[in-house]
Amino acid sequence: MALGTINRLYKLRRLILEGRRRWLALRHGVVMGENSSISLSGRVVSGGKGSISIGNDSLIAFKTLLVARDMSGRTRPIRIGHRCFIGGGAVVMPGVTIGDGSIVGSGAVVFDDVPPASIAAGNPARVIRQGIEVGKRGQLKGSEQNWPSEIR
Question: How many CB atoms sit inside 10 A of residue 7's CB?
Fold first, then answer.
């Protein structure tokens, strides 16, 4: 019963996330592709318009931090590809590019670029697997069958 109740709130959640998406674009200059979202608890430190760009169908999970300014105050853009997933509590440092179809594990601290179709995890983040296939929001292929039909 509880799962059915939570799923009813999905439309409201999508509405709130769309408002947040617009706020991030106006206030921080974050460029986000279609169907991409940053959790409400995710934070950005941008260096101006376009310093953080996120591709289509990507998901940035809770309590993440995207930092586009280095310690000297210089802006170094962050690029996150299409169909990526950045796990909860991860930190993406200035100048990092995360390739299309990649996954960054929870709590990872990403200092270097992550190649396309790979999984990076740890502190500092290291590539632990390559050649993966993902669907929307960086879900590994086949995992979507575990989600209710309203969310897919």
Answer: 14
Higher pLDDT, 144 or 75: 75
Give the predicted TM-score (pTM) of the model: 0.85
Look at residues 17, 26, 19, 33 and name the one whose alpha carbon lies nearest to residue 48.
26
Q: Count of CB atoms within 10 A of residue 124's CB?
A: 11
Question: How many other β-carbons are positioned within 10 Å of the β-carbon of residue 147?
Answer: 11
What pLDDT is stored for residue 152 in this prediction? 55
Question: Is 93 within 8 Å of 114 (Cβ atoms)?
Answer: no
CA distance readout (Å), 23 to 27, 29, 128 = 6, 9, 34
Both tokens assigned to 90: 């991860």
Rounded to whole angstroms, how far apart are CA atoms 124 and 19? 33
